User: What shape does this take?
Amino acid sequence: MNKLRVGVIGLGYFGERHAKVYRRLPYVDLVAVCDRDAARAGRLAADLGAEATADFHALLARPDIDAVSICLPDREHTEAAVAAAEAKKAILLEKPLAHDAAHARIIVDAVEKNGVRFMVGHILRFDPRYVQVHEASRPEKLGVPIHLKAKRNGIRSVAARVGKNASILFYMGVHDVDALQWVARSRIARVYAQKIERLGNGNEDALYAVLNFENGAIGCLDYSWAWPDGLMNGYKAALEIVGTKSAAFLDCSDQGFYAVHDDRVTGGDTHLWPEINGRIVGDLGDEITHFADAVLTGAPFVQDYREAFDAIPVLDALAESARIGLPVDVKR
Assistant: This one.
């Protein structure tokens, strides 16, 4: 089998993990990594046996790279993704697709014009818990959806670190908008959101919303990153759907692992991207492995990029509703 030759653009928390997963795949050659912090790029490249650059245009110009992971902040996705499409590279773009629907459309247009493979990193599509809720929500099992609910709560130090660079909607919320539309087999048509800002982090502390789906179901969203940093595992997430025949739900607050000390109990990641026996595994490992496999074999991705795109207008509507305090129709 020919090896897939890859590069990674953006070496923050997720970019470093993308590079480490690629490095462990026997049919992938991690050729180069890129970060505007040249020293960071150099250190990771030395650790992983790759080359380093601070200029993503230079990385994309290399003929010995077939595919790239783009792990930049969402407001920097457009330039890099369009350049990658024009360079005819297969693209794995970390969520969200873009920071608003207008920029998401620019990226999608470039992908379609250049005919490149394109996948957005919606990690919940690789989480066994969410996949099983989707399976349990098949119409012949669930019946007609009546109501849905999604919760994603995180800790305030993350909000402080992100600051004005992202909204809770795009940094965290895209997961659940995508998941709700996925399990409901229906798009969100109308939203009514309210937010609160008290901690001074430059973004929302919390946002709640009521949703109307095109198939007549109603739903709600519960977003927060105002929890104290002592919250076990750093987040609480849940999803539920109730239909005319059955219902399904999950609760991700408890990952089944505890470390007990005299003064506290802590948890750990057992699903998302735990490092086990020197390898990053779990949902992120499965996501990146799937991308590499599909690009090499020509198989379809588990999520079409048009579904990933479809979450962005909902986020725009939620932001607008929270701003004006009124219901907003989703514009597609």
User: Anything to note?
Assistant: The chain has a mean pLDDT of 96. The chain has two domains: 4-121, 125-277+310-329. The radius of gyration is 20 Å.
